[in-house]
Amino acid sequence: MRDLDQVFRANAVVTSGITSHLPPRGHGLSGRVIVVDDEEFIRDLYRSVFESRGFTVFSAPNGEEAVKLLRTMKFKPDAVIMDHRMPGKDGIETTREMLKIDPWVPVIFSSADESVREKALEAGAVSFWSKPFPVSLLVDAMVDMMRARRRQTNE
User: Fold this and answer.
1) Which of 90, 93, 124, 147 is the least buried, fewest Cβ under 10 Å from its Cβ?
2) Strands (E) located in 21-64
3) End-to-end CA distance of the chain
4) Strand 32-36 vs strand 79-82: parallel, antiparallel, or unpaired?
5) Closest CA relative to residue 20, chosen from 42, 48, 40, 41
């Protein structure tokens, strides 16, 4: 029962109680996303929402694992969702290191710590999402970004 309570709390924190009204799998668009967050229930929430839209989700509980994951991936992710406060490397340091490995991967910062917004953007994050926010909006933004990229490569 405790795990279910954590999922409900995570959903309330991250989504502000808003659920996605987006089409399920099979909408013709798929992608890969890495979720970096030290809270397992947050990683699970992101996984559930993104997978329901056809994304393949990789996750890491800290910066060190995220860097290792990116280095070993055969096909690079379409985006990284990065938390700030984690044991070991924080999100700023992890963003910098990941962008040294792949300077083209979009890193989307997701944190309740608004004071690090400028540092995150200076480190190379493409956007900063202040928690709580509706996860469905983040998924929409990812889909829009991927569609725009595909249009650019097809032109």
Assistant:
1) 147
2) 32-36, 56-60
3) 52
4) parallel
5) 48
Residue 23 pLDDT > 50? no
Kindly report, residue by residue over 97-134, the tens digit of the pLDDT. Answer: 999 999 999 999 999 999 999 999 999 999 999 988 88
Domain 25-143 = CATH 3.40.50.300: no
Per the CB < 8 A criterion, the answer to whether 40 and 10 are in contact is no
| Crossing angle of helices 91-101 and 63-72, rounded to 10° | 10
Rounded to whole angstroms, the Cα distance separating 98 from 59 reads 14
What is the percentage of the chain residues whose pLDDT exceeds 70?
Answer: 79
Cis ω before 106 (30° cut-off from 0): no
Which CB contacts under 8 angstroms, 24+ apart, belong to 8-11? 9/41, 10/39, 10/41, 10/42, 10/44, 10/45, 11/45
Domain boundaries, the chain: 25-143
- 126 burial type by CB count under 10 A (0-12 exposed, 13-18 middle, 19+ buried): middle
